[in-house]
Structure formats: C-alpha cells, structure tokens
Design a protein that fits this description.
This protein is 39% helix and 19% strand. By secondary structure, it is an alpha+beta fold. The chain folds into 2 domains: 89 residues; 230 residues, 2-Layer Sandwich (BirA Bifunctional Protein, domain 2). Helix 2 runs antiparallel to helix 4.
C-alpha cells in the first residue's frame, strides 16, 4: 500500500484512540480543534493529495477517516451531554417529602383601599382622574388659587422648596389649576385629583409631613352649593354607610367662596355622642366650597358665565375613621401585622 495512504489510515486510528480518552466537554473541544476543525490534522491530509500516486485510493482513505472520526465524535458529544444533564438533575433534585414553605398572601394597605374606592365612586359619576405633579411651581400651587405671595394662609402650608419658585405641592388643587388652563374652549370640568401632598409638620399620631388627598372640582354653567351638598352626601353614604348624614359649617379657604367644613354623623354612636366624635355626634371629614371667582378668572373662565365647586378629603383621615386606626404612622410602616386584617372587598 502506498505510504501516504497508510498515513491517512494511521491518523484515523490515532484520532479514535485519542477520542476514547476524552472525559469532559473541554477535552472534547480540544479534540475537535486538533483533528476535525478546518485546520485540523484530518482535513489537513488533503493538502498531500498532489503527492499521492493513487489519488482515488488516497481520497477514499481520507474521507473514510473523517467520516468515522466525526461519527465517533458526535456519539461522544451526546454521551457527555447526557452525563452533564444527569449530574445537574441529581444536584438539583427536590425532596418532595419535605414540608413546603408557606407563602403568606399579601394585603392591600388601607391607604390604597380608600383611594381605589373613592376613585371608583367618582368614575361612576362621570368624573375624570387627573393626578398632577408632586413638584409644582409657586404659581400653580398658590397664586392661581388666590394665595398671593406673603398671604397669611401660606403660614399654615409652609412646605419644602427647591429654590424660590419650585416646591413640593401642599395640596392637589394645583392639578385643578392645570386642568382649567388646559381646556381649549373652556368646556365644563368634572375631575378628581388623588395624590400625595407635603407640608412641614410634626409627625405625631394624627399628622405627617406627607399625606394623601383626593380633591374634586366641577366647573360648569349654573353650578350651585346644592350640587356640592348632594355630591358630598353621596360620598359620605358610600364611604361611611347609608344612614350617614352630613352638615356644612361656614369656614374659610382662599380658593373657595363661600367655604364650608363638612361633618358626617358619627358612625360609631349614630350621632348620640361618644369618644370618637368627642360627644358631639359629628366628625369632621373634609373641606369644600364654591370656587372663588378670582380662581375662575385667573384660570381663564368667566365667573359671570361659569361657576363651580371644589372639595378636598384626606385619605388617611378617612382610613383612620373607617378602620379605627389610632396612629397615622401605622399606614406608612408596612408592618404585616397591621396590614393583615385588610383585604379588597
């Protein structure tokens, strides 16, 4: 047999012997590079074709060597892959006889329960939800709401400023000012603005430097205090029970005129007087009033043609009253022991 053909047959035997000693994927990769890759030993035999006297015999020997070694290589590859998978499954095997770890169900914070319920109520009444911005300008937070610079009422709403003009909003009323200015043709408005508000305040059982408000605004032709009272009566009955009544007490807010404080008949004693209502039979829940004509005019509405009402309710206050929460700080502590009783109705 021609010597060059014998060399091809010998390389086949050598490759198969080397493959039999491969024990892992790294060794298999090294084997492939040495013998079967484009620049490997077996494909490299074809460069000797011009030296062979019997080129047909030499080509057949090289092809046979490549076919046999490739087939054995693929078999070895599958064997190693199977062994690797079995080892991985063995190391990750789960003991089904062990007791499972209980997965505690989550609970909804009463803060979110109140917001969702109020939003659903006013959406059913045809209101639009406008959340607004947490960081506001002095113009929208104060001036457009009839609170000019150096106005005494600003002392009650001292807040967190970013320079001279930007601040964390002290109430969500700023969203109402944005909405009124955005209306291109001065169309009627029915909106609520839920969200966070911020004031420099001492943190105690009933106060927090941040709190949530839901403010409402209606602007249209012919809106009166009767519309406001009817809206708030429905709100009180839905939130505190169908037997609840409300009363309006004269008050003062710069952005409403006339302004009222709204009380609801005590749902703990039915109006007879108890510790919750401090013996009066009534509990204060929100502030409201007719939109001040100056606010309407500043936001582009003709107060001779349009009127409106606005109201604002504290989310935490409603939650504390409904669920008997004794400390506003519990709402923000994310303590599962506190959250456990609450669930979506």
């Amino acid at each position: 047999m021609e010597e060059i053909v014998t060399k091809a047959l010998s390389l086949r035997i050598e490759a198969l012997e080397a493959l039999s000693h491969v024990q892992d994927e790294k060794g298999l990769e090294e084997f492939y590079v040495q013998y079967l890759a484009k620049k490997g030993l077996i494909p490299g035999l074809m460069t000797l074709m011009r030296e062979a006297q019997d080129k047909a015999a030499f080509g057949a020997a090289v092809n046979s060597a490549r076919t046999d070694v490739t087939a054995k290589y693929e078999e070895k590859k599958q064997v190693l892959a199977k062994a690797k998978l079995e080892a991985k499954l063995a190391s990750e095997r789960i003991d089904l006889t062990l007791p499972g770890q209980p997965c505690l169900p989550g609970r909804v914070n009463p803060y979110r329960l109140v917001i969702d319920e109020v939003v659903d109520l006013f959406l059913d009444m045809g209101y639009e939800v406008c959340e607004g911005r947490d960081v506001e300008t002095d113009k929208f937070n104060f001036e457009l709401l009839n609170v000019p610079k150096d106005h005494p009422s600003r002392d009650m709403q001292d807040t967190f400023y970013f320079g001279d003009d930007y601040l964390l909003r002290t109430q969500t009323s700023a969203a109402q000012a944005h909405k009124m200015l955005e209306m291109e043709r001065k169309r009627p408005i029915r909106m609520i603005a839920p969200g966070k508000a911020y004031r420099r305040d001492d943190d105690d059982m009933t106060h927090s430097h941040q709190f949530a408000q839901i403010e409402g605004l209606v602007v249209d032709k012919g809106i009166s205090l009767a519309h406001l009272k009817a809206t708030l009566e429905l709100f009180a009955k839905k939130m505190f029970g169908e037997k609840r009544e409300i009363r309006l007490r004269s008050s003062y807010f710069p952005f409403t005129e006339p302004s009222v404080e709204v009380d609801v008949s005590c749902f703990n004693c039915g109006g007879k007087g108890c510790a919750m209502c401090k013996g009066t039979g009534w509990i204060e829940i929100l502030g409201a009033g007719m939109v001040n004509p100056r606010v309407l005019e500043a936001c582009g509405y003709d107060p001779e043609e349009y009127s409106g009402f606005a109201f604002g309710v504290g989310v935490e206050r409603v939650a504390m009253l409904r669920y008997g929460i004794d400390d506003i700080r519990r709402i923000y502590q994310n303590d599962f022991r506190f959250l456990k009783p609450f669930s979506i109705k």
